[in-house]
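Table S2 (text version). Query chain:
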Amino acid sequence: MADSYNHLSGTHVKVSTPAPYVALVELDRNPVNAFHEPFWTELGQVFGKISQEPTVRVVVLASALPKLFSAGIDFTALTIHQGSDPARTAFLMRKHILSFQDCISAIERCPYPVIAATHGVAYGLSIDIISACDVRYAASNVLFAIKEVDVGLAADIGTLARLPKIVGNHSLVHELAYTGRNFSAAEAEKMGLVSRVVEGSRDEVVAAALELAKLIAAKSPVAVAGTKHLLLHARDHSVRENLKYTATWNSAMLQTQDLMDAVKAAQKKQQPKFRPLGSKL
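Corresponding structure-token output:
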């Protein structure tokens, strides 16, 4: 029987177990999943708790709302620090922004692959969120936008840091960030933001993401978690540095029992069964 992850849920972030070793995280704040501070703080906390769950192997991040992924920031609840001393105000603002960034970066810090499934509308903070994910699927009806420029600010929670390292068209990244215009699922796939466009809306894209999650969950959790860790290291380091780091990493990880289990299962033409990452020897 699969472990249940429902206890990891919060007020606006729901967690369920649609398949063994798979956690489905759903954003659920009516009417449009607009983020206020308690919402984004909770999202970071939920991913922090998921990271400590030894039986999780893959996470799917989606919206529980049928019409859209998220409209972005809830500007009606946004607090802007103001004071008579600009320097002290800046210190407070910087602390607030760093805390916000940390909540969204919890998705990237999660040791398990995170698959984003978007549909409907995915504006503003949505791009920051999915850029922190490992794999991105889009329903054919989704509209994306880097909306921050339209409200007088530069995106500061991760989009400008991660998006240029995800997509191959830097000219288009600049265009989208400068204009705030909508772009479709097809354009997102063409630029490399998403790896698959699924015909339909929420149910179809979530189903496709879950199928991918189940495929990944059948692999060695040592191999998958190690692959994510090394890919993130490669993004932020030179080829030479990553090769040396990978040699050190695998000098330990090649000693895993998963390697022998996979070989024996292949010889018997069977599906290998792997223990959870946190299981005792």
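Notes on Table S2: Residues 86-109 form the longest helix (24 residues). The mean pLDDT is 95.
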